[in-house]
Amino acid sequence: MSLVMPEPDLTTLARRAEIVAALRAIVPGEGVIDDPDELVPYESDGLTAYRQPPLLAVLPGTTAEVSAILAWCHANQVRVVPRGSGTSLSGGALPLADAVLLGLGKFNKILDINYVDRIAVVQPGVTNLADTRAVEDAGFYYAPDPSSQIACSIGGNVAENSGGVHCLKYGLTTNNVLGCEFVMMDGEVVRIGGTQLDPAGLDLLGVVVGSEGLLGVVTEVTVRILPKPETARALLIGFSTVEGAGQCVADTIAAGIIPAGMEMMDRPAIHAAEAFVNVGYPLDVDALLIVELDGVGAECDHLLGEIERIALANGAVSVRMSVDEAERVAFWAGRKAAFPAVGRISPDYYCMDGTIPRRRLREVLERIRALSDLYGLGVANVFHAGDGNLHPLILYDANVPGELNRAEAFGSDILRLCVEVGGVLTGEHGVGVEKRDLMPEMFTDADLKQQQRLKCAFDPKSLLNPGKVFPQLHRCAELGRMHVHAGRVTHPDLPRF
Q: In the beta sheet, which residues pair with residue 58?
């Protein structure tokens, strides 16, 4: 592992038997896993380049159990790493040797559906796709749809602020979550947000969504459900150059057209996806755009024609329009399966996640190609073109000495490039451990310390998911928290808020 994680606390390791016994008293039966062989499935998440078995795993089934576990760990100075489905691609659920891994897989129930208010209340272990399946018979759906939606959980979506192919028009998780039940590190259970669109007070929900398990554990989520559009049509557009496809994306948005989804794949990704799902993608093109319009039928027909005109002006060599729902779904099948498809053409791949201004798309793709030549590693580009969220898949073989290090360096250069052109380090996968040491590329030391002060407000002992997001850990006292000595604070005459 080239990544440096916090040193394990030897005192905690020596107390393992005591910790196991205490947590078994809270979650009896098979709720605590401490056998080394049975802990192997928890040693990594979707970023499989890094592995570390946890101290133990505990699988609560109720909010009361989560509260009791966190309260005990807080009182006994034991670190905790929350985990959902384990599909994180940034190492957000990477365990620590001295930390309890808190698995939320048993929280898999849909608690309430209210079609009048257009909301659903779900537990964090409910998969993203299951949310839509539960309401689709009534003509509704849940908008965020990551490619891993068949497996990723709502709780993980909240942690990483996940998006998906339709986030261009309908937003990411933060735009589709109205409230949550949240357990603090000391065991206190609080409710943030609710069923209303915009609750009064501080936007604590905006803080929680995307907090990557650093602030607390979500045990219930209230999500927005939307009526299914009257019409949904898709275009499959092939280009002889990646640059032409990138310019088509920029010109479409500049024309005031906001598609429901706008995805792009380059030649390696196209061939891998077509070989995997056989949906009829053109194989004689260097780039493929999938563009979907939804809404009123007449409007969709008009805008599809406008996009076709823009595409042809940018050198499109093939344009295919879906004729029915089955064909529209087929167009998306290859894109949704692109990641596993690429896994068939390379022993390993490293999936990046950076976001750039759309107007710089063409330039960035050219420079990624140059970096591929520099590092001697292939790359397949699959990304949410409409909102500039890139997912380059760096192809490597972990069994070849040095290739993982080259892949990491290649990926770091891509992310630096994203920041250089005015973008950000992550669009939806989160920072986790993957981008942690690149945070100073985007934030100043003052910025990072201010972010850590926010964590201190929720988790003053820094017990939740340590080693993630922040490149340099500080104790909360080092960040200027109020100092109390002998029961007195500094400058007692000043008002405190």
A: 32, 102
| DSSP conformation class of 358 | G
Interatomic CA distance for residues 157 and 172, integer angstroms: 9
Q: Is the pTM of this model over 0.85?
A: yes
Angle at alpha carbon of residue 312, lines to 308 and 315, rounded to 5°:
145
Domain 10-103 grouped into CATH 3.40.50.1460: no
Strands 79-83 and 99-103: parallel
Q: Which CATH number fits domain 110-227: 3.30.465.10, 3.40.190.10, 3.40.1190.10, 3.40.50.720?
A: 3.30.465.10
Alpha-carbon span 199 to 344, nearest angstrom:
47
Convert the pLDDT of each residue in 186-226 to its tens digit: 999 999 998 877 777 888 999 999 999 999 999 999 999 99
Sheet holding 32-33, edge to edge: 32-33, 56-58, 99-103, 79-83
Domain ranges of the chain: 10-103, 110-227, 230-343, 437-485
pLDDT at residue 2 greater than cutoff 70: no
Per-residue pLDDT reduced to its tens digit, 250-275:
899 999 999 999 999 999 999 999 99
The class that CATH gives domain 230-343 is alpha beta
Residue 343: φ, ψ to 5°: -65, -15
Q: Which residues make beta-bridge pairs with 127?
A: 153
